[in-house]
TrEMBL record:
<keyword id="KW-0175">Coiled coil</keyword>
<feature type="coiled-coil region">
    <location>
        <begin position="245"/>
        <end position="279"/>
    </location>
</feature>
<protein>
    <submittedName>
        <fullName>Uncharacterized protein</fullName>
    </submittedName>
</protein>
Length: 439
């Protein structure tokens, strides 16, 4: 839609012809726009829909605007026809004709009848049911009404084109997910994911109804945009439910994975718990041996295997037999961690219980290592070293063994051997010395 030239004094023939040409082109453009609006899919949908909320309010105003637009256009058409008739009376228009044409083309010569305005008096901004316009102001008014009506129609059509189809696709995916969830025991009231599916179903159903009846409630205009339909559909609720459904799908995938490898995981669990039990049994046996062979030491008590894990393992096997995969999944994850912790605890108990035996073995090894070193240097027959060695060996190979006293005996043997081994060097430097001390 365009705008005619500015008003002025009485127009000459050329000015009239140019103005009529502009008006003709403008008339054609306006008619094309109005017909396009009339045939717009969004307008047809709005006419046939049961609207609610803000859309119903705005469509009532838009319908009145469109009706008024056609009334304005008819008045515009009549004015243009009248001008053309005056101009076509004679080839060379008279002064009176030119004055009439000037008034018609530039003055407020277009009157819209009350019957045309009766349906939308408030659109005029006055209490009158008729009003006069110049062709320029009439075009401006039509442009305003057309822009606001088209904006409303395009916005509603954009929401209807975008959201319902996406909601339907998500609803179809939701139904497939519900069937899969039901097959693995994920049901409302029995599993949180089942409750989520019910909530998503209700939300999508309600969302679709609202989008169909009140599309403008889900339209976000672009700030500062003057173009008709400037904005985007508000997909906040849709996006939130789509993410929620994706979370449910992941949960069901986890349950499906449990169904596929449940038996293997149960076998591994039994193996881990069995190893933990054997390790604890070994620790209890070792504790009896330590108490019999090692004196004056604290030996930690070894607890028995926790019966709760065996009970939970039996419950997990029961879930598997009855295909209660949604319950089996979290239980297996918990049991696997607890079983590993139990095996670690059993190994730590065995290590703590056998620590005194390890200390005794270390002392025995150190004693024999020093004896071998002394023998390599030809001092194995030294009576003092033999005495110290025998004393340490008796302590280490007798039961119960006092580790503290035995450790001191081994240390004394080491010191004696070290002194004896250093004696030749001392003799070379300053004569023979006896560093063995009192026996």
């Amino acid at each position: 839609m365009g705008v005619t030239g500015p008003p002025g004094p009485v127009m000459d023939r050329d000015e009239v012809d140019r103005a009529l040409a502009r008006l003709g082109a403008e008339h054609e453009a306006i008619e094309t726009s109005l017909l396009a609006l009339q045939d717009h899919a969004g307008r047809r949908l709005l006419e046939g829909a049961e609207l609610t909320g803000v859309t119903r309010e705005r469509w009532a105003g838009a319908e009145a605007s469109i009706t008024l637009l056609w009334a304005y256009f008819d008045a515009y058409t009549d004015a243009l026809r009248s001008a053309r008739e005056i101009r076509s009376r004679r080839r060379w228009s008279s002064r009176e004709d030119l004055a009439d044409l000037t008034e018609l083309l530039r003055g407020e010569s277009v009157t819209v009848a009350g019957s045309a305005l009766a349906g939308a008096p408030t659109l005029l901004g006055t209490g009158r049911l008729s009003q006069s316009f110049s062709l320029v102001s009439l075009v401006d008014r039509m442009n305003e009404l057309y822009a606001s009506s088209l904006d409303m129609v395009v916005a509603a059509d954009a929401v209807w084109s975008a959201l319902p189809a996406r909601i339907d696709l998500l609803a179809a995916e939701l139904q497939r997910t519900r069937r899969l969830a039901h097959s693995v025991g994920v049901r409302p009231g029995e599993h949180p994911a089942g409750d989520d599916l019910e909530r998503i179903t209700r939300t999508l159903t309600r969302l679709r109804e609202q989008v169909v009846s009140d599309p403008l409630a889900y339209w976000v205009p672009t700030q500062g945009s003057s173009a008709p339909g400037g904005g985007r559909p508000d997909t906040t609720v849709y996006d939130r439910e789509a993410r929620a459904l994706e979370d449910v799908r992941r949960e069901i995938d986890a349950v499906l994975t449990v169904r596929q490898d449940a038996e293997q995981r149960l076998v591994r669990l039994r193996d881990v718990l069995s190893r933990a039990d054997r390790t604890l049994a070994e620790a209890r046996t070792a504790r009896g041996e330590v108490l019999a062979k090692i004196a004056a030491t604290e030996v930690p008590v070894v607890s028995g295997p926790p019966t709760v894990l065996q009970e939970q393992l039996a419950t997990a096997a029961e879930y598997r037999r009855h295909a209660q995969w949604h319950r089996l999944s979290p239980l297996l994850e918990s049991l696997e961690q607890k079983a590993e912790d139990e095996l670690l605890r059993a190994r730590e108990s065995l290590t703590a219980v056998t620590q005194p035996l390890a200390v005794r073995a270390e002392l025995r090894g150190r004693l024999d290592a020093y004896k071998a070193k002394v023998a390599r240097l030809g001092l194995a027959e030294d009576p003092f070293l033999i005495e110290r060695y025998d004393a340490a060996r008796r302590m280490l190979w007798s039961a119960p063994c006092d580790l503290r006293v035995a450790g001191q005996a081994v240390l004394r043997y080491q010191q004696a051997a070290a002194e004896l081994l250093s004696a030749p060097r001392a003799a070379e430097q300053g004569g023979p010395q006896d560093h063995r001390g009192e026996r």
